[in-house]
Amino acid sequence: MDVSPLEHQSQTLDQENEEIVTEGVSVVHGEPPQDGSSVPPKVDSEVQVLDEKVSKQIIKEGHGSKPSKYSTCFLHYRAWTKHTQHKFEDTWQEQQPIELVLGKEKKEMAGLAIGVSSMKSGERALLHIGWELGYGKDGNFSFPNVPPMADLLYEVEVIGFDETKEGKARSDMTVEERIGAADRRKMDGNNLFKEDKLEEAMQQYEMAIAYMGDDFMFQLYGKYQDMALAVKNPCHLNMAACLIKLKRYDEAIGHCNIVLTEEEKNPKALFRRGKAKAELGQMDSAREDFRKAQKYAPDDNAIRRELRGIAEQEKALYQKQKEMYKGMFVGREESGAKRKSRNWLIMIWQWLVSLFSRIFGRHRVKAD
Q1: Which end of the chain has the lower number of beta carbons within 10 A, N or C?
Q2: Do 71 and 102 form a contact (C-beta atoms < 8 A)?
Q3: What contacts 233, CB < 8 A, 6 or more positions away?
């Protein structure tokens, strides 16, 4: 049976022939929170004191070892001021994991770094950090907006980390090094996808995307921009493929939108976004995406099948509605027939009563 490229891509990912092994890598086995909460989570676990100004409560256990000094850690977090519970940062919402090189963090990240150094890959925790190891006596009045002497709360999840002796941050890497590191992550993700380890695959794609952050992409042009997009966009598309399998359709649409911002004619992005929209019941919008995808990949059988499937669903819905309305009209017709039958009976009864009255009246006259 002939399987079209896009249909194949909806179930599997592009696989490289060469297997690249990443040394000293630890990856996550869990799932990030999906609620987008605006308030800190309520945690009942034991409070672990890590420092005079830093304590931790575990929300979800992690796996493997903990990062050492100069490890390059990738993490997501939400951050609040402790007393007012004002949320001032959310990397999940921004779909941008944060890189943190332990031992080389910014001053305002000192408390966060202490907390992360105690966490395993996949671990999620609530960190309580005193203002002295946060934004300090003066606070921060740009982005993020943190008032003076504000104690902080961080809901943190460690995506994964690379053990590196020199503690080389992304900003210290050459363009080729960053793209190469991201590409290795992508291939690791593809291998995990083949094993149906979708959550772990997504974590690898997220780490690859972290190497290709907006600050980095804005600086590129020409062949380097093309090289970076050739890694970054497939990671977003592969994330979408995983999310569709996990039935997290809104998130899948978000990753497709990122690709379409860079490549509005990308048929895979249009196809996968259409699949996700169709699953959400957004048939008109899904059909529009499939038609656009068909414009750029006119010979693809998968697109034809999806469009035919939408047409068949709409036809079935039309027939169902038609039968429903027909039933309503038949009911009315039956009611009308019953009314007519009842009216005839009444007329016959009235005629009989009238007839008997006349006959009875005549007999009375004769008797008199």
Answers
A1: N
A2: yes
A3: 259, 262, 263, 266, 269
